[in-house]
Amino acid sequence: MNYIIYIAKRYLFSKSHNNAINAIVRVASIGVFFASVAFIIILSGFSGIRTFNLDLIKLTDPQLVIKPIKGKSFLLTDSLSSILKNEKNIEIYSKILEEKIFVNYENKQKIAKIRGVDSVYYRIFPLDSVIILGSLPSNKAADFLIGVSLANELSMMVGANQFVSIMVPKPGKGMITDPRKAFYTKQFMPVGVYKISVDHDAVYLYSNLHSVQELLHYPSNRISQIEIKVDNVNNIEKVKNNLREQIGNLFVVLNREEQNPLIFKMLNTENLMTYFVLALILLLALFNIIGSIMMIIIDKKSNIKTLKQLGVNSHFIKKIFFIQGFSMTMISGLSGLLFGLLIIFIQLKHPFFFLPQTTIAYPVELHFSNIFWVVITLVLLGLFSTFIAIKSLKEN
Q1: What share of the chain is helix, strand, coil (3-state, %, to 5)?
Q2: Residue 392 class from Cβ within 10 Å (0-12 exposed, 13-18 middle, 19+ buried)?
Q3: pTM (two decimals)
């Protein structure tokens, strides 16, 4: 075996007398190098974007939420409150009332959603960290926090002591005979503007729970959902299962992934598709390795003949070229991997690539799992391509 490795190493690092073969080997090695660079950088970039999107979700969607299976609202009973208080892994929970509304401001109308939240809501979601103008709404006064996109659409002035008419349809059946009597209306005052994401900012207003209950003519214990923060992220599933067992079949308990099934399915599908596309690019680059090994075999035909005359069998010769080809693949691939990791490290410490039209550094993350999958893919495809290349020895 030592002789095989020695000869393979000589073939790997020695140049051929044929300059064309030397050029083919260099091009093949460079192709694998850059394919590995792209592989690790794109996977790390996708991991960064995934975390970036999930961080946005964390600003709007709770770790756990309790909703009624039927209807848009329910009465918070003493028994349900007792279950929540007795669950030791719940750090805090907040009562929410959400409804679609019409916002009417200086002859401009817009359909939006209003969220009435209690005083502890901002301990679950620190919306004060995303306010760009004004302040959080109070606990009792009829005021609200508005998204920057919605405020721009309505050309709404914040802090000018101007009231905004908010209307909701009255519950009932049949035809509307008098549109003026078809809505509940209440005057609210905008006190702050927040910025989370374009989709969220264009839809949601935040006010206190009491004012929204007054707008909808609801009693003080009628809400639409309960949002929960647990004491430890590792206890989320445990708390979810405990609550499901206790609250019966009138409610559903959802974690973040269950609240956003389409987003998580899209992210998982994109991750899988990205991996397969990058693996295909690497495989195409390795076809150059196959061609270069075949050319080396042709170039070393006289050496192979000499080895056979010395009594070396075909299996021995195949091992020589197999080790040479696989080593060529791994040296180029791992060099590309290290270079890609260096670029990622520079982006993390001293960002040089930013999201379009922003000063936000493009998010990247270094995960061992990404490195692992690049190496495993490189090894498997390297073995596959080298095995195909040495099959040409049957004809020589």
Answers
A1: 55, 20, 25
A2: middle
A3: 0.77
